[in-house]
Amino acid sequence: MTEIRLGVIEAHFADIIWEYEPITSSELVKLAGKTFNWKRTTTHTVLKRLCDKGLFENNKGTVTSLISRSQFYSIQSKKFVEDTFDGSLPAFIAAFTKDKSLTSKEVEEIRKMIDNAEEE
């Protein structure tokens, strides 16, 4: 999959779509007006940009995702680890936990993820 980059506002707007989808474009205009104080034209411009990037589809006024929120953020996370830590998950975890202690619940969740990854 090609890399999809979003600015902060685009990401927030995308999160709104994912939260409410399927959503009509007119309802999206109302939400964007309340959230960002956008006009209808701004909402449609940003929506078109996100559709052109392959995240969403606007079919006859109904907006749905082509990529789920979890898929999108999974791709972004993997890209971040690749670019920042040469793809090393242990290096990422070491940096993440350097100044932060993990709770026993977090440790248990990580152990379960590792066990599941080993089984696959």
List keywords for this structure.
120 residues; mainly alpha; Arc Repressor Mutant, subunit A; three-stranded antiparallel sheet
Characterization of this structure:
The protein has two domains: 8-69, Winged helix-like DNA-binding domain superfamily/Winged helix DNA-binding domain (Arc Repressor Mutant, subunit A, Orthogonal Bundle); 88-120, no CATH class. Helix content is 67%, strand content 8%. It is built from six helices and three strands. It is mainly α. The protein is elongated, with a radius of gyration of 18 Å. It has helices at 8-20, 25-36, 40-52, 69-85, 89-97, 104-119; strands spanning 23-24, 56-59, 62-65. The model has no long low-confidence stretch (mean pLDDT 92). The chain has a three-stranded antiparallel beta sheet.
Q: What is the compact description of this entry?
A:
The protein is 67% helix and 8% strand. The chain is mainly alpha-helical.
The CATH architecture term of the largest domain is Orthogonal Bundle
Note the main sheet.
3 strands, antiparallel
On the 0-100 scale, what is the average pLDDT? Answer: 92
Summarize the amount of helix as a percent range: 55-70%
Shape, per Cα inertia axes: elongated
Approximate strand percentage: 5-15%
Total tally of structural domains: 2
CATH class category name of the largest domain: Mainly Alpha
Runs with pLDDT <50, length 5+?
none
Helix/strand layout:
Blueprint (H helix, E strand, L loop, with lengths): L7 H13 L2 E2 H12 L3 H13 L3 E4 L2 E4 L3 H17 L3 H9 L6 H16 L1
Antiparallel strand pairs: 1-3, 2-3
